[in-house]
Amino acid sequence: MAGGRAAGSATEMEGVTRTLPSSGRPSGTGRLSRGLLFGRNYGLSPGSRLLPPPRCQENADPQKMAFLLRKQWTLYSVSPLYKFSSSALKDYARMLGVFIAAEKQKGLAVDVGGELGVKVAMSSMTELRGSEQDPAAVLVQLSLRSSVSRKTSEEKLIWSGWFCCVAGDDLLENLPQDFTCLPLFLANGAESYTAIVGSWFQKTFDCCFRRLAISPLNLTWMAAMWTGCKVDKNTAAVELLFTVPHLPQPLDISYAIHPEDAKALWDTVQKTPGEITQEEVDVFMECLYSHFHRHFKIHLSATKLVKVSTGIASAHCDGIIKFLQSQYLIGVLMLLTELAISQIQ
Amino acid sequence: HLASSLPLPSERDHLRPRIDLIAFLIDIKSKYSLKNVQASLAYVDVRFFLGKVCFLVTGVGRVNNCSVEMNAIWKLGEDYCSPVIFCELELEGIRVATAQRLLRMLQICAGRVPGVSALYFNLLMKNSAGD
């Protein structure tokens, strides 16, 4: 998994020498047609995206939802899993536990104590999906067991990871049988455990994990989409973090906008409620950039946007996300699923 | 001749040789470069767009640093009837190949390749991209 990123960028560079025009919109068949010059969904964002309304999760377990919020999750894209069955989760948990114990014996695992070893729990989260066609999300949790006294043992959660798929229609329609599509994987915890769990899944289900990076273009979409979301309580400011490349001393620029001002600006830009177009995102960002330029004489459009933080969620271009509001969780997951799918194809 | 934007300063007009090819560089990591190119296009005489203009998009090797959406670039190429060439300056092989390609285009635009005019070559490039 760690090597995936280097290999990914190398293949992207090789793609430049290919001069075959290929399909713009990702599709399972990968037919060639007029459009991009590369075999991937390169820098092509859809002309418009639908904004899902905030979802009231009454039937969802509030504790489980709270568990997902305010944590830093590292994003990965996962190719479809072969012969994965959501009813065999207990068996998978047992096998993964055995695998981790074996890795620990080999001396590869990070040993943070806990004489009784690592316990694996796998559960299904049925509320985290876009529609009935999406497979239910799967949560994997690693806890360290240590004996407190002779009879009782204490469990401490050390790592969590979950697979999910929200509105993965693009990938689901062309999927052959026996494959389960859970393209988005989020991990919180030590990197070594992520590597072990990832390698077990890759060996058992013949899938491929890749770090999901978010391009500055997609970050501007997130900034626009999340600014427009209505939040009741006092929310944090909309904060954009830029880095300036090619300088002897690296320069970071942080641009914070009052959430109500940002929302007022977005409301003047957005025409159709519930839908966002590329032009609207461009105009919104252009307004912010020109305001900044007027005051500081710096062209933010020449810098690289690396992080977007709003009251809904915050996203970093290295593929790190933090959810802050449970009602918009599904909406954010839908966008992330779309990015994961475009990275797989 | 290298310029960061158009129009070129008028002081050196009399010293400047004839311009045969204008290559507009767009860095995919910088939205500012696209805006700059769009503003500079207004200063180009319309006769240049008969095969003597091309758009060179750089930085395409790194997908995850893309700040410019591709639709805008394709639309630019279509609106101005000029070819869009992609390259990655960080890789020497591609840099050299792109330079050779531009040099060949320049030879054609300067009229040094017998039997091939700039307009003819432009149509060739457009037709091959459309297939």
Automatic annotation (TrEMBL), chain A:
Pfam families: CENP-L. It comes from the Eukaryota. Residues 1-31 are annotated as: Disordered. One of its GO terms (cellular component) is nucleus. The keyword Nucleus applies. It is found in: Chromosome, Centromere; Nucleus. The keyword Ubl conjugation does not apply. Keywords: Centromere, Chromosome, Nucleus. Belongs to the CENP-L/IML3 family. PANTHER family: CENTROMERE PROTEIN L (PTHR31740). This is Centromere protein L. It comes from Odontophorus gujanensis (marbled wood quail).
From TrEMBL, chain B:
It holds the Pfam family CENP-M. It comes from the Eukaryota. GO terms for cellular component: chromosome, centromeric region; nucleus. Keywords: Centromere, Chromosome, Nucleus. The keyword Nucleus applies. InterPro entries: Centromere_Cenp-M (IPR020987), P-loop_NTPase (IPR027417). It is found in: Chromosome, Centromere; Nucleus. PANTHER family: CENTROMERE PROTEIN M. This is Centromere protein M.
